[in-house]
Amino acid sequence: MEIKIMRNVLDKNQNKADEIRQLLQEKQITMFNFISSPGSGKTTILELICQKFAQKTRLGIIEGDAYTDRDAKRLAIYDVPVVQINTEGTCHLDSHSINKALEQFNLDDLDIIIVENVGNLICPTAFDLGEHYRIAVVSTTEGDDKPIKYPMLFRESHAVILNKTDLIPYTNFSMEQFNKDLKTLNGKIPIFNISSTKKNGLNALMEWFGKRFSRVAEL
Amino acid sequence: MHEIAIVENTFKIILEVARREKLSKIRRVNFLIGEMHAIVPGIFHHAFESAALNTIAENAELNLEIEPIKMRCRQCGHEFIIKDSEYKCNECKSYDLDLQSGKELTIKSIEGE
User: Fold this and answer.
1) Stretch A1-27: mean pLDDT, rounded?
2) Cys bridge to B28: A91, A109, B24, B61, which one at CB 3.0-4.6 A?
């Protein structure tokens, strides 16, 4: 006999993510989810955000890593609360692990939470964490074909940060192709071309975050 | 890798349904996956077979139906299927599109006795 189910496999993740979004709304907290490949520069960008905003914005960070707390240690020096999630090899964070991490913060003391997801361009995209903004980080050394190869991430992100632009002369990265593909996937998405080590292009990026940090995201 | 997480969740659901329906054997699982999830069918089948070992779904057939990415143009109303990741209306060339299907991760049904 056949038994109809018609259920989304990730419905439990979705339900928890919806609960988180509700909780954050009550606490007037805006949450960001940073997704990228390993080594694209997420943690360095978070360091730059901490340097710019930690003094004036009540920031909290959730660090997702498959193993180790190295990234959390890099960020702890900015005197912001950092909660580490070790996924023990799993390639993405899910809403249940975020929920547990949130319990470790005093949410009344926070306005912004930034989640650094596990480095991976596919898996994290399928798992809603209850965030308000999804940020895709890519670097020029990964090649200009990332948007077209991983369309779901770029379709569903609110901003793209292209890092390591200072290295373009040493790669075959085509800015024209990258922009063209992104436009096809997500015509309205803002793109920030930066070099986090050379500190190029940071003003526009920080201005974008500043605007979103200064007001509560709407559901 | 997300194939494994999806299969793990699938098993939680199908074994729970089988228990409730008092099935002693699951013969077939009918699954619908949207193309947007970039699932690799080979890995999905392999993960499914591994997860099924020593359960009532051991040797069950996995019927994997892939749903193409379908969009509706918000400008001209045209409905079409996305090919080669080109997210542009093939009638009026607008990028303003509304997803109709292609993001499914649905267990449609199980068959067994």
Assistant:
1) 96
2) B61
Neighbours of A148 (CB within 10 A): 18
- A38-54 pLDDT, tens digit per residue, is 999 999 999 999 999 99
- Tell me the one-letter amino acid at B98: D
The residues, any chain, with a CB within 8 Å of residue A215's CB and separated by 6 or more, are: none
Tokens of A167: 């290295």
Judge whether residue B38 has pLDDT over 90.
no
Burial level of B28, CB count in 10 A (0-12/13-18/19+)? middle
pLDDT digits (tens, 9 = 90+) for B65-94: 999 999 999 999 999 999 887 888 999 999
Contact of A66 with A86, CB cutoff 8 Å: yes
Closest CA to B87 of A15, A148, A113: A148
**Chain B from 8 to 67: CB within 8 A of any A CB:** 9-10, 13-14, 17, 21, 23, 36-38
Asked if B109 has any chain A CB less than 8 Å from its own CB, the reply is yes
Q: What percent of chain A has pLDDT over 90?
A: 82
- CA–CA dist A113, A126 (Å, integer): 20
What is the ipTM for the molecules in this complex?
Answer: 0.88
